[in-house]
Automatic annotation (TrEMBL):
It holds the Pfam family LRR_At5g56370. This is FBD domain-containing protein. Residues 28-66 form the F-box domain. It comes from Urochloa decumbens. It comes from the Eukaryota. Gene3D superfamilies: Ribonuclease Inhibitor. InterPro entries: F-box-like_dom_sf, F-box_dom, FBL15-like, LRR_dom_sf, LRR_FXL15/At3g58940/PEG3-like. Residues 149-284 form the F-box/LRR-repeat protein 15/At3g58940/PEG3-like LRR domain.
Length: 483
């Protein structure tokens, strides 16, 4: 037994000796390049992969074969540029860089090198808190980062952390299919629309711009390829013009912000004959320009609208404006900012124009405490004309309804009862109560609806448990998961 142990020890000693410094390294170095690349891809960052070049001459060239580089957290911009500019480095299918509170000169140092190397996806996230006021924004603006033309990139995702960004005045993004821009301060001389329009982005399918500044005057996009556009929270934009013959999905959320100093209305002029899904959440122009847009279509697969009730309503016309026609819609989501007002009459006005509806979703939102939102001022016109409670309406395709943040008010009971009458083939109604509603109040609401639904309709009520941050199914007395 002792002799056997001595043999094993001798073999270990022999295997541990070698010119390259160890059996582990020798065996790894003997692996083919593709396996070594897989090993390096598991390292945390590109910098760690580069450091493996110190192992031996065999390893010195392996990192350059990586198809993607990730800098998280990123070193100094000049260090990133040095890695990207290495002469032995191959083309990259992905570059990912994460910084925290970076200055413009840091991003400007490596972006041109990335444009030369990249043949795929670029992701840059600069994590930074936004300034608290417009004056602070201007003070902290600094120099703009010049974005080079990424001729071979397929997607670009930039979260600039409110750094200034100047778009390239020349060049074609020949392979770009998607671009997402967040927390950007756009700087002249080139406008966003000039870059993302045809022919500079001939293959662009998806455009997203969120929480950004500097698009003050006009966004004019003329694209033969765009299929999806999402615009959200753009400060002080005045005019949006889209000429997008193949656009299928459009989302416009609070893009006309901070225009209170100027009484003139912003303008939205959109040509999108193949649009299938529209989300329009823009309080300032919802009645005029959104309706003009809707009138262009005979049918939409889905539509998201926000109904806004002022706290003091003194004009019946202001409730629904000039809504006289809607396209045929399969899925409708209504967000109702009702400030305690009844929403039944306005909702009826919309639903009688949506007789092909399959699914309906309501989101009920109101500011303030529950008591303040339970009633509206005496003599309020929010429930007029009252004939909506007796007029005939047949929604003989509507099979599913969801209502969020129900508060148990009497006008809500009335509306749900009418839904049971209108929706002749309704299969499921799901109601989620506002987190501030007590269980006793919710059960009172359930009892008020008892006997109103059809036997084939499943009705479910959900409560929110603040202590566990979760929802649970509320079974009304005498019933299972519905009526």
């Amino acid at each position: 037994m002792a002799q056997r142990g001595g043999e094993v020890a001798a073999k270990r000693t022999k295997l541990s000796s070698g010119d390259a410094g160890g059996v582990g390294e020798e065996r790894l170095s003997a692996l083919p390049d593709d396996l070594l690349v897989l090993i390096l891809l598991r390292l945390d960052t590109a910098a760690a992969a580069v450091r493996t070049s110190a192992f031996s001459r065999r390893w010195s060239r392996v990192w350059a074969l990586l198809p993607e580089l990730r800098f998280d957290p990123a070193p100094d911009g000049r260090a990133i540029r040095g890695i990207l500019d290495a002469p032995e480095a191959a083309a990259l299918r992905r570059i990912s860089v994460t910084t925290e509170g970076a200055r413009p000169e840091s991003a400007a140092a490596w972006l041109p090198a990335a444009a030369r190397r990249l043949s795929g996806d670029l992701v840059y996230h600069n994590i930074a808190a936004p300034p608290m006021s417009y004056e602070e924004e201007e003070k902290e603006a600094g120099e703009a980062v010049q974005l080079p033309c990424f001729e071979k990139a397929t997607t670009i995702e930039l979260n600039m952390g409110f750094l200034g960004l100047a778009l390239p005045p020349q060049g074609v993004f020949a392979r770009l299919t998607g671009i997402s821009l967040r927390c950007v301060r756009f700087r002249s001389p080139c406008e966003l629309g000039d870059v993302v329009s045809w022919p500079r982005c001939p293959l662009l399918k998806k455009l997203e711009v969120h929480d950004s500044r500097g698009l003050d005057n006009l966004v004019f996009i003329d694209s033969k390829s765009l299929l999806l556009i999402k615009l959200k929270a753009l400060r002080s934009l005045r005019k949006l013009i889209l000429v997008t013959p193949h656009l299928q999905e459009l989302s416009v959320i609070r893009i006309f912000l901070h225009l209170d100093e100027d009484p003139s209305e912003p303008v939205a002029n959109i040509s999108a004959p193949q649009l299938e899904s529209l989300e329009w959440n823009e309080v300032r122009i919802v009645n005029r320009h959104c309706l003009r847009l809707l009138q262009q279509f005979q049918a939409l697969y889905s539509l998201v609208l926000t109904l806004v009730y002022k706290q003091d309503i003194n004009d019946l016309q202001c409730l629904m404006g000039d809504i006289a026609m809607l396209p045929q819609i399969r899925f409708l989501h209504l967000t109702v900012l009702n400030q305690g007002h009844a929403f039944g009459a306005s909702s009826f006005h919309l639903l009688r124009m949506c007789t092909d509806l399959r699914e309906l979703s309501f989101g009920l939102h109101a500011n303030g405490n529950m008591d303040a939102q339970s009633t509206c001022p005496s003599g309020c016109i929010c429930d007029q004309p009252v004939s909506w409670k007796t007029e005939a309406l047949v929604l003989n395709h509507l099979k599913r309804v969801e209502i969020f943040d129900m508060r148990g008010a009497e006008h809500e009971v009335t509306f749900v009862k009418q839904l049971f009458i209108w929706a002749t083939v309704l299969k499921k109604l799901r109601i989620r109560f506002d987190y501030r509603v007590s269980e006793s109040k919710a059960r009172e609401f359930c009892r008020a609806l008892a006997g109103s639904s059809r036997p084939e309709t499943s009705v479910e009520f959900y409560m929110y448990d603040v202590s566990t941050s979760s929802t649970y199914l509320l079974a009304p007395e005498g019933h299972g998961t519905g009526f």
